[in-house]
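Reply to dn_fold:

You asked what the input looked like. This is it:
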Amino acid sequence: MLQRWSVRSKLLAGFGLCVLLVVSLGGAFYTRTQELSVNARLLVDSHESILHLKTLEMDLEHIGLDPSSMDQQLVNREMDRLLDLSESEPNQHQRLQRFREILKRRLNPPNPDEGRRLKAETQSQLELLLAEERLLLQQRQENLAYGTDNNRIGLALGTLGCALLVGGVAGLIHRDMARSVQLLVKASRQVGQGDYSFRLAVQGTDELSAVGEAFNTMADQLQVERQKLLDVQADLRSSNLSLEQRAEELLQRGQEVHQLQQLMELLQSSSSLEEAVKLLGPRLSRLLPGSRGALYFLNQSRTVLELSGSWGLEETVEPAFTAEDCWALRRAKEHVAPPEQPELRCAHWGDSQNQWHSCSPLLAHGEVLGVISLTYAEPPRDSQLLRSICEQLSLALANLRLRDSLRQQSIRDALTGLYNRRFLEESLQRELARSQRRSQPLAVVMLDVDHFKRFNDNYGHEVGDQVLQAVASYLQLAVRAEDVVCRFGGEEFCLLCPSLCEPDLSLRLEQLRQGLEAVTVSFQGERLHVTASFGASICPLHSTEGAQLLLLADQALYEAKHAGRNTFRVCQQLVKAGASGESKAE
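and this is what came back:
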């Protein structure tokens, strides 16, 4: 605030404060001096009291038990003086009065025993009075020392306060002379730093007040111009912010496109549809943050949608549902159901509450492949991204299904559903490598249906096909999970049995032989029984070459047929004595 105070007023105010401080210090010093005088007098009284008590003690020691030898007037004068000196201490005064009464009884004891008792009591009371008086003496000495120190400190502080007050008055005069100029400098710096709202509070009509008013007028004009510039800058910032947001959206789109491309590359590189489905969950959860979902495919009969994979919904996801239970499949487009409209929720979602639900059909080449079902805690943000994902995913999954179908056709026998000879050759090389790596045996078994030509000649090729299908079905159920069953050609089948060697191999062949005896085919009410012959070879006992093992197993099969069929033989080449197995049906 710009305001001119007169120097005279400041001097008078400072002089008045100095006088007030000196008077206050003088009064305080006088009061403390009076207190010191009182403490000094009390200290002298304590010394005199101790002297009189010591005199009494000496007198009492001299008289012993003869009170008549005591100068009673001297004792009374001593006691009167002690009582006068103890008037400032009521407790000590009362003790002296009791001591005086005891002393009077001692001067006139009724009998010697009482005199001795009064002597002891007088002595103890005298010691107590001396102890109390010494304690009072110590306290009074401490009070006197403390008061002296306080007076010294007070005098020093008072002198220092007067000096500070005089210096403060001088500083105040100097500061007030420079305050107005400092405020003007500060205001100029504030405006120079961009604070155009800063104003000086002006009071008075002197020259500095006029300068302050002129400064305020200049600051008003600058603020108006500054505001115009700020408005222009605000428009520019708004435009830049819109461009930055658009750039962030484009960057996010680019990242999403990149992730989607990576996903499509992974799907195209997948070896099977099952492998592709395992890749989808983690990547879709990153592409669609906050989502949980499941992927369903139509079954072969196109009547039921079966669960292929899910992420975040393992406990609540439905394993299968019909197309009628899904709004998206009925409408052939994306369907979103908010939590406040449960009637729009698809039936396969169950009773999950407070969630957003969406279903998007997977369409490829005009054909429905399945549906992606998603749930969100918040409203879905980007439906366009989801549509792009569904379009790309549909094409990729359709290609995978087609590739799987072609792959299955290339390695599966169309009649029996077993693996074909091509797959057998691939599997044999793989199992041989694994057998050598793990130092475990591998059994190769050739199986031939007995008298298969009779089934075709007597009952027709349809019955022959049924026989092959019945044998294939039995083998699929009878073998172990690690065994490989293939149709080698015609009525011949081949089994690859890892880690199986004699004598377990012979036991296993006998079980298969007996199991096939129970296989029948129905033709016009007649039950046609099926038997088969088996031949086997073992790696590395007989050979480590795949073609040689097949040849040796085939030779063992022919030996079984020559032995009467419905039996088995294990290759004899390079087999130790007693290692062969042989069994023949009765």
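Residues 112-192 form the longest helix (81 residues).
Hope that clears it up.
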